[in-house]
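Figure 6 in text form: structure in, sequence out.
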């Protein structure tokens, strides 16, 4: 069953079970989708409201464009959620390959490496997609319904959680690939993503707190 067909309680039961999948990578995708959905709610309760109608034409278009982009982000997050599970299951199949002869061991080892590289791709792409989505939340914070600024703030908090979770799932695969030429550049990319995400999240949360609970 695809994730989009789950009921909430079914997903939680599946996640809680002894099955190794879904796991952290898929949950990271779900959290990203929740962030996008919260942000979309801000837009849905902004467009065509009095404050929206007072905006100039160019700003209205910006809000509408970002509202549409928010929907696309939700869809992309769900796709990566599904892809993470698919690649993980395929990697697990690689470990089940026969290893009785030297030739079989060689084939199995190569398959595991290829499977691990693939398993790393979904969470890495998710982390990048999430980081880019901060721009969308910034627009919601700036032009969105002021009664929903807390929801935009929560979207930023969830987004950072999705990024951190995705990074963890990249690392768990990258660890066995440290001898590969690309490993160091991926590691540096992860460090940069996490550091920049903290700053973006904190900036949005500060704006939120200044408005909903000023000191």
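Output sequence:
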């Amino acid at each position: 069953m695809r994730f989009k067909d789950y009921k909430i309680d079914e997903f939680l039961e599946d996640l809680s079970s002894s099955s190794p999948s879904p796991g952290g990578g898929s949950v990271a995708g779900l959290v990203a989708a929740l962030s996008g959905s919260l942000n979309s709610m801000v837009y849905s309760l902004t467009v065509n409201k009095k404050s929206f109608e007072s905006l100039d034409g160019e700003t209205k278009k910006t809000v509408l464009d970002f509202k549409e982009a928010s929907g696309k982000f939700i869809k992309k997050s769900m796709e990566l959620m599904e892809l993470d599970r698919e690649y993980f299951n395929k990697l697990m199949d690689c470990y089940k390959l026969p290893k009785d002869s030297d030739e079989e061991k060689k084939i199995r080892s190569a398959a595991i490496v290829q499977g691990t590289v693939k398993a790393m791709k979904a969470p890495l792409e998710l982390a990048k997609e999430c980081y880019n989505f901060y721009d969308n939340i910034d627009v919601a914070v700036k032009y969105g319904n002021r009664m929903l600024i807390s929801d935009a703030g929560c979207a930023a908090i969830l987004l950072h959680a999705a990024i951190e979770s995705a990074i963890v799932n990249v690392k768990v695969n990258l660890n066995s690939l440290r001898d590969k030429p690309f490993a160091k550049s991926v590691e540096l990319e992860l460090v940069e993503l996490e550091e920049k995400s903290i700053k973006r999240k904190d900036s949005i949360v500060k704006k939120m707190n200044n408005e909903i609970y000023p000191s």
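Caption detail: The chain has a mean pLDDT of 97.
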